Amino acid sequence: MSIPAFSDISKSANDLLNKDFYHLSAGTIEVKSNTPNNVAFKVTGKSSHDKATSGALEGKYSDKSLGLTLTQTWNTVNALDTKIELVDSLAKGLKAETAFQFLPATNSTGAKLNLTFKQSAFHGRAFFDLLKGPTANVDAVIGHEGFLAGASAGYNVQKAAVTGYSAAVGYVAPQYSAAVTATDNLSVFAASYYHKVTSQVEASAKAVWNSKSGNAVGLEVASKYRLDPVSFAKAKINDRGVAAVAYNVLLRPGVTVGIGASFDTQKIDQATHKVGTSFTFES
User: Fold this and answer.
1) Taking 80 as the threshold, does the pLDDT of residue 237 lie above it?
2) Around Cβ 178, how many Cβ atoms within 10 Å?
3) Residue 263: helix, strand or coil by DSSP?
4) Which terminal Cβ of the chain has fewer Cβ within 10 Å, N or C?
5) Cβ contacts of residue 64 below 8 Å, gap of 6+?
6) From residue 62, how far is each of 31, 65, 112 by CA, in Å?
7) CA 27 to CA 45: how far, in whole Å?
8) Cα–Cα distance measured from residue 114 to residue 188, given in angstroms and rounded to the nearest whole number
9) 14 DSSP assignment
10) Residue 23, SS3?
């Protein structure tokens, strides 16, 4: 079993609850292409329900023999990002990543160093913001026979203070997984469950309780049904009565379309509903 990162202990449940629901944006488009010399390009665009638009252009070069990946991104807020990754080059199981950002409009810069170390029963990460603070965030997960336990903590070097801490436990099996997390200095508790019922049906549920805001518990359930090898449908609803549905289909090799909508079942007669579409082109 591959040990997940701390943020991915509830990944199966979170992905089913959050991914491939297209109503959050009025429209999104993504175009991907690859060249013979290991360079990949990706262009993304998004239109919000408030009629605001955003986009990004990304170029990525990979050299698997060296374990090197270079990624450069330019987006519509005129931010230039450069990321350099080295995998297994410095040590087996170690991934080193440096990320730089430059905003020409304000001449502001950013620099980060991220380290990930993976072994058969361990997954540890460290994130350093070199110019702000500087700050450090570390997390680690250990696992044995499907059982997982992890913790994370943040530290501000300039203030010499711990900025936050979290903990999580979980269990992963081939057909299901469960996790309990405590975040925001152990004040927000979440329990999630994922079950692959059959090869066509998946289900997930998540309950969240914030100890700082009373006794109310938020609940959300979702399901995914694979209609055929090239399409699937999803649906979810939460304790506030907000429901969402989505449909995804591979029209032809390299062309994927997604359609989604959300409805407030307690305010059917009001204009609170949202509809969104997504188009992905790959070559």
Assistant:
1) yes
2) 19
3) strand
4) C
5) 38
6) 19, 9, 20
7) 8
8) 26
9) H
10) helix
Q: Are strands 68-75 and 147-156 parallel, antiparallel or unpaired?
A: unpaired
How many residues make up the chain in this entry?
283
Residue where the block lists tokens 């409009």: 105
- What confidence score (pLDDT) does residue 274 get? 94
Question: How confident is the model over 121-168, as pLDDT tens digits?
Answer: 999 999 999 998 899 999 999 999 999 999 999 999 988 999 999 999
C-beta of residue 261 within 8 angstroms of C-beta of residue 23: yes
Between CA 253 and CA 217 the distance in angstroms is 43
SS3 call for 105 = coil
Cα–Cα distance, 54 to 28 (Å, whole number) = 10
Cβ(135)–Cβ(129) below 8 Å: yes
How big is the chain by its Cα radius of gyration, in Å?
Answer: 21
Query: Could you tell me if 182 and 164 are in contact, meaning their C-beta atoms sit under 8 angstroms apart?
Result: no
Closest CA to 151 of 131, 130, 123: 123
Secondary structure of residue 17 in the 3-state scheme: helix
Q: Is the pTM of this model over 0.85?
A: yes
CA proximity to 108, closest of 148, 81, 86, 142: 81
